[in-house]
Amino acid sequence: MKRFVTLFVISALLLSVLSGCWNRRELNEMSLAVAMAVDKSKKGYHVSVQVVNPSQISNQQNGGALHTPVSVYSASGKTLFEAIRKIIKTSSRKTYFGHLRLLIFSKEIAKEGVGKTLDMIWRDQEFRSDFFMVVSKTKKAKDILQIFTPVEKIPANHVFQTLEVSEKAWAPTVAIDIDEFIEDLLVEGKNPVLGGIQVHGNKESGKNSSSVSKIYPDARLVASDIALFKKDKLVGWLNVDESKGYNYILGNVKSTVGFLECPGGGNITMEVIRTEAKIKGNVVNHKPKISISLKLDQNIADVECDWDISKQTTIKQIEKESAKKIIALMDKAIKKAQKEKTDVFGFGSTIHKSNPKEWAALKKNWDQEFTSLEVDIKVETKIRVFGKVNQSLLKELEE
Amino acid sequence: MLDNGQISSRQLSILFLIFTMGDSVLILPTIVAGEAKQDAWISGILSLFFGAAIVFLYHRVGRMYPEHTLIENILTLLGKWIGSIVALLVIFYGMISIGALLREIGDFMTSQIMVETPITAIMILMIVVVGYAVRMGLESIARSVEIFFPWLVLLFTFLLALLVPQIDPEHVKPVFEGGIKPILRGAIPFTSYPFIETFMILMYLPFVKNKHEIQRSLFIGAGLGGLVLVVFTLLSILVLGSEMTSNQTYSGYKLATKITAGDIIERVEALLAGIWFITIFFKMILYFYASCLGTTQLFKFKDYKFLVVPMSIITLSLSLIITDNSLYLGTVFVEQWPYYDFTFGIVLLLILLIIGTRKLKKQKT
Amino acid sequence: MSFFKKNNTFTKEQQNRSNADLLSRELTINISTIKEVFGQTSDLIIRNTHLHFYEKVNLAIIYIEGLVDTAVQESVLNSMLMDHERTFAEKGNDQSAEQVVDFLINRILTVSQVVEVSDVTEVKTQLLSGNTLFFLDGHSKGFAVHTKGWKGRNIDEPESQTVVRGPREAFTENIETSITQIRKRIKDSSLIVESTQVGRITHTDVAIMYLKGIANEKALKEVRERLDKIDVDGILESGNIEEFIQDTTYSPFPTVFSTERADVIAGGLLEGRIAIFVDGTPFVLLVPALFIQFYQVSEDYYQRADISSLLRMLRLFCFIIALFGPALYIGITTYHMEMLPTSLLISLAAQREGIPFPALIEALMMEVAFEILREAGVRMPRTVGQAVSIVGALVIGEAAIMAGIVSPSMVIVVSITAIASFVIPSYNMAISLRILRFIFMMLAASFGLLGITVGIFALVLHLSSLKSFGVPYMTPFGPFVLKDQKDTIFRLPQWGLLNRPSLIAQHNTTRVDNKKSQKH
How far apart are CA C227 and CA C208, in angstroms? Predict the structure, then answer.
């Protein structure tokens, strides 16, 4: 009997607990944020959040395309957290950030420093760390959230995947998540970078769903360039070539495309299939020195000139030329970073690891040291595959 | 004896292994990396040797009177009055440890997973299960630990295998940057949390079936447990880097968020918090059982089971008043707690060993 | 006497009574006593006659109609009432009662068993067991002749625990038939049957069967003691016995294994377990029972070892689904949304749009509806059962979704859970999961995965605190016995199964004498 009483008490307690359900969130009581844009406003921050309209995304219920696949809510506030909470004023549901894919900073915010905003995101348990951060090259970051994207219905997913793929297969972009960014911030002798994003085409008509009903949408979201940060502040941009150089130096390139001019006019295109970069640091007479060696395998993808590539000498020449070109790219990137006085390559931390004692002296003045840092670049290229044919069509036609 | 239960030497090994890992899996890398930076793993390896010495001490103390628990040892060796006071202090140590562990688990849950849930609700839930376990008796506890053990191994291997691709060997460089001092400072918490805190295992040695295998079991348990902790610390540094490891409150949890395998196994940290749950649960259970048993032996009660409910309530309130916020507890854990451990786990045991050996020698002659 | 030896306590009881109720030398007094005991029941047949070979003596034949095998009885009567005068006359005409009795038993009665009865209680038992009693005038003892026999069911295929490959013989309600089925399988003198009767009014025959020298003596003693302790008016099924002898009452888990398959019992006996047969039910109990035993079927030993191992793992996997399925769904979708891939989460969210209930209520509704359907399906006549399932499928599967009361994903979860719970071979284990599933759903709804984890902790602690007749329930996981893992989740090929489970058969654990039977 006693047991039954205790059982009863326990189940009664359990039920009372149930009615609490402090943390319970039903799926249809919250809205799923996939992207967040932070702009500057007079008071402080203007935060825009892209949330999913699940019923429009799911395959199963295609009940009329009355609604857009996503909606954007926004609010301003003195601090980021306040602004985010204020969104509830306009949204019927509480926003859930666990599945955030994309965080966009406007240029202004980035220039002032993203550290303040990041603290909230880094601290809050709901935010995870697997979303990418980008800096908007378009003036207002909010605009990015409003562009319709083809194929992938959720624009945030579109950008997420674009960044992920293009870092691997195109090279002049980076996909940085918050973990990497913060690690770069915390590590001595390294400064972070972020990818850039911008709208190509007509921004205004891209905000209308009719944009994606065209085969070529009015506005496209394009990932391009790399934003250089000094600590948490944006200081400059790397252009396409420099961005490529940046990725070569850090060995981020999985695959990309490069071309050479043929001696007799026309181009020859190479597909890079494998790279291996090694950065070594050394200190000689208290002077830091960095040497980068890059090994690179490439395929010949496209011969649009009458260069005779069946000869070994030509191959050697191509290898040499392309190495020269890549060195130039890397050099450009380093020059640019030196100009902005920000060591985004982590040369400082390389020195730290190789010569911890010398680093103690160098680190106080590292920004200055970096501008005059001597960097030695070695590139070794190998051509592996020639495609299905040996000789170029043009060459064949000539004969 | 109050509980006629007996445990096998294998069960003792597993119990001690889990006791060693305890809460350390989640928080130790953070604390040690805060001191020794990227050399935290060296602190770990160093601590393994300290640990071995400490476990040897446990064994020696336990061997003096194989049929006596720690509390009985204290009572016989230190005399009635001093012994009673020291025994009370030891019991209090056990209870405050449960309180701290309870608070730790509550803080973790409310800061990482369930923010809006009141911490009391979570702690009540935990203490109810811990109390239930203690009521079930030593044999049940030992059997259930055996059931959980394969899962623990499975989860750990799973974590290890999935984190290997995320390793960046550059993170451990430069080795020995700050010299030996920070490494030694890191070794203090690394020795005290897994090895010294577990001196309560002396309450369990009399229940082991094969007394001559105790030494082996203890060394296996502590060795494996310590090794796991070293691997975890090394992994945290290799994957997260020392900066991030010391920046995160729960680096072990952060480590689990790093797992990605082919876009399918992702975001599994809530499941992997399971490792920690198993170990911390059993650490609480072991403290709780030891405290109950100790109290019973001190006051010569006939049964320990009636103590479970009042003890649960006391530890629950202890965990609520022990600290205002999690930050304070964190500081205490780093700055004061190791010395508190040291007082009981080393100083007290050494005193017992010295007095005990003399007494035994006298008896012989 | 009957097939059964008397149990200690019962004989004692009878001895106490017998002083008062001894039979008289007078036949008429005896008959009136018996009439008094049985009241005016019409199926008690008393026939007054006298022996043909010695007409001086009056004779009463008493039996209960329907309980006796008429063919046997007829032959007995024949031999008694036939003319034997000549054979007997040789010894003279003036015989003492004892001589008559001796002649009657040794020369005339041609059946196997004849037992002397001397008090009323014994008379009662013998009559009620279906034996025919003879009383001679002037002799204070009666004779019970074994004429037991009534109509029972034929040996049939088992209704539960069916197999694709394996014997198709189930026990019947008749205890002797059941015991014979085991005897047929284990032809060894070490197979011991101990019989007793349980139930003040029903006097149900209960038999303990074990292999001497293999069965765990401690467990055997426990079984005997616990059976002795039972004091109740009636035992109608082995389930009644089970409740009396199980170790823990307050546990959803069965600690006594029951089956109607003869081969399972024979296998259990060979492992050193003890079987308890109860008259009137085909379900035989087997103790000690371990947790894992409820996930094994006899077919595991008849199929290839690798396949059986996989199937056992599948069953354990189903156990996990059946227990945690809805709880995990509730926990993850309401507390740990970050664990789901984004696209899955969006699709789940889309399904939940417009559902008026929280996930827990939704799941509870579905589960309860399913339990109702299942119960209806079991109790209904088979033809109606079909209709029930059609209505159920339509109502729950289709209409509820169309009406927007439950989400399709919830239907998927609940039905997978239901199917998984059917995979568990033992019915009483499956029932326990049904109860626990609801508890886990509650825990998940109030604390998310934390609740489930805590629940698992409590569950494992509970399981490891259980014992079945002195053997820890979770053997060989906790305590871990490496040797016994060979036939737990995995099953090694037959040549690998040379040892009996060590905690059940505590001595004589080797199944073979030499290495001959190992793989060649």
Answer: 10
CB contact under 8 A, B144 and C458: no
Give the pLDDT confidence of A116-149 residue by residue, as tens digits.
888 888 888 788 888 899 999 888 888 888 888 8
Question: Which residues in chain B have Cβ-Cβ distances shorter than 8 Å to A17?
Answer: 121
> Residue C270 belongs to what domain range?
175-289
User: pLDDT > 90: what percent of chain C?
Assistant: 15
pLDDT single digits (tens) C12-27: 444 444 455 777 778 8
C480–B263: do the CB atoms touch at under 8 Å?
no
| Pairwise CB contact (< 8 Å): B114 & A352 | no
* Partner chains of C (3+ C-beta pairs under 8 Å): A, B
CB contact under 8 A, B136 and C462: yes
Please name the chains neighbouring A, where neighbouring means 3+ C-beta pairs under 8 angstroms. B, C
Written as six digits, the tokens of A15 are 């039920």
> In chain B, which residues touch C (CB < 8 A)?
8, 10-11, 109, 113-114, 117, 121-122, 125-126, 129, 132-133, 136-137, 139-150, 263, 266-268, 270-271, 274, 277, 281
Q: Is residue B127 part of a domain?
A: yes
pLDDT of the residue at C329? 92
Residue C71 backbone dihedrals phi, psi, to 5 degrees: -65, -45
Overall average pLDDT of the C147-151 stretch? 74
Q: Are C424 and C430 in contact (CB under 8 A)?
A: yes
Verify whether the Cβ–Cβ distance B113 to A356 is below 8 Å: no
pLDDT surpassing 70 at residue A339: yes
Total residues belonging to chain B: 365
What is the domain range of residue B190?
9-364
Q: Other CB atoms closer than 10 Å to residue C387's CB: what's the count? A: 12
Q: Is C477 on the interface with B (CB under 8 A)?
A: yes
| Position B2 in a domain | no
Considering C103, C123, C145, which residue would you say is the last residue of a domain? C145
- Residue matched to tokens 């001397």: C118
Query: How many C-beta atoms lie closer than 10 Å to residue B1's C-beta?
Result: 12
Q: If phi over 0 gives left and psi between -120 and 50 gives alpha, with beta otherwise, what is residue A372? A: alpha
Task: Choose among A130, A187, A356: nearest Cβ to B177.
Answer: A356
Assess whether C285 and C334 both reside in one domain: no
Number of domains present in the structure of chain C:
3
Residue type, C14: Q
Report the residue from C335, C346, C355 with minimal CB separation from A58: C346
Q: CATH code for A239-399?
A: 3.30.300.210
Tell me the shortest Cα–Cα distance from B321 to chain A, in angstroms.
Answer: 23
A25–chain C nearest CA distance, Å: 5
| Mean pLDDT lowest among B291-305, C23-37, C50-64 | C50-64
Distance CA C336, CA C338 (A): 5
Chain A residues whose CB is inside 8 A of the B122 CB are none
CATH code for the domain of B306:
1.20.1740.10
Torsion of CA C499, C500, C504, C505, to 10 degrees: -90
As a whole-number percent, the residues of chain C with pLDDT over 70 amount to 87
**Whether the Cβ atoms of residue C413 and residue C428 lie closer than 8 Å to each other:** no
Model confidence over C65-99: pLDDT tens digits? Answer: 888 877 777 777 777 776 555 555 555 556 666 77
B317, two tokens = 């309130």
| Among candidate residues C413, C384, C383, C379, the one with its CA nearest the CA of residue C396 | C413
d(CA A29, CA A291): 56
Q: Both tokens of residue A183?
A: 């690690």
pLDDT band with cut points at 50, 70 and 90 for residue C318: very high
In a domain? residue C372? yes
Q: Which residues of B touch A22 (CB under 8 A)?
A: 114, 116-118, 121
Best residue of C361, C364, C446, C462 to probe chain A, by most A CBs closer than 10 Å: C446
